[in-house]
């Protein structure tokens, strides 16, 4: 019934890794976005209200950056809760992908960038095992998002 390539054990260890970082969803979500905007400044162009912000400090304090960081982490959290139910998982990923493809016109490579930064942060905070156990989840998310983009004609 599942299109997911994760075993039950992989789902469990991915959830454990995710829980550690999700405890501080707003701070960690913000850290991920700030790192993305700093290391890939072109990604800021999608967020009109972040454009003028150049310092990481300024971004960290911004309610809009914090709000979006939390939103990103909440969306991933919903996906993580449904890794063992592909229908529910796709029910979350599909509208999100469609919105980013059609309304927001976000280049799909940015999903990979944000996932890689989440993995980096996990490794820094909790070590390589956490990163390794969550890597399959990020691949799963990015694969599904890319498929939705293809369906939308990207």
Please tell me about this protein's structure:
This protein is an all-alpha fold. It is built from seven helices and no strands. The chain has helices at residues 8-22, 25-39, 56-61, 63-81, 86-103, 109-126, 128-151. It is globular.
Could you report the average pLDDT, rounded to the nearest whole number? 94
Give helix % range: over 70%
- The number of helices is 7
Q: Indicate the CATH topology.
A: Globin-like
Strand-residue fraction?
under 5%
Gap between N and C termini: 28 Å
Q: Give the H and E element order.
A: HHHHHHH
The first-level CATH class is given as Mainly Alpha
Q: What ranges have pLDDT less than 50 throughout 5 or more consecutive residues?
A: none
What's the total count of β strands?
0
- As a whole number of angstroms, the C-alpha radius of gyration is 15 Å
Backbone structural class: mainly alpha
The figure for the number of domains is 1
Q: What does the largest sheet look like?
A: none
Please identify, by name, the CATH architecture.
Answer: Orthogonal Bundle
Which descriptor suits the 3D outline? globular
CATH homologous superfamily, by name? Globins
Q: Can I get a quick summary?
A:
The chain is mainly alpha-helical. The chain has seven helices and no strands.
Describe the secondary structure blueprint for this structure.
Layout: H1 8-22, H2 25-39, H3 56-61, H4 63-81, H5 86-103, H6 109-126, H7 128-151
Helix pairs in contact: 1-4, 1-7, 2-4, 2-6, 4-5, 5-7, 6-7
Function: Involved in oxygen transport from the lung to the various peripheral tissues.
Domain Globin: 5-150
InterPro entries: Globin, Globin-like_sf, Globin/Proto, Globin_lamprey/hagfish
């Amino acid at each position: 019934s599942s299109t997911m390539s994760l075993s039950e054990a992989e789902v469990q260890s991915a959830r454990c890794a995710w829980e550690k970082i999700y405890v501080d969803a707003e701070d960690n979500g913000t850290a991920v976005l700030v790192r993305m905007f700093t290391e890939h400044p072109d990604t800021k162009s999608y967020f009109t209200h972040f454009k003028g912000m150049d310092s990481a400090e300024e971004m960290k304090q911004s309610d809009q950056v914090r709000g979006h960081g939390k939103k990103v982490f909440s969306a991933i959290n919903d996906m993580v809760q449904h890794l063992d139910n592909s229908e529910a998982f796709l029910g979350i990923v599909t509208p999100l992908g469609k919105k980013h493809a059609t309304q927001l016109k976000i280049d799909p490579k940015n999903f990979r960038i944000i996932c890689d930064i989440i993995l980096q942060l996990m490794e820094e905070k909790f070590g390589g095992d956490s990163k390794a156990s969550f890597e399959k989840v990020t691949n799963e998310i990015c694969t599904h998002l890319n498929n939705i983009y293809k369906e939308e004609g990207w």
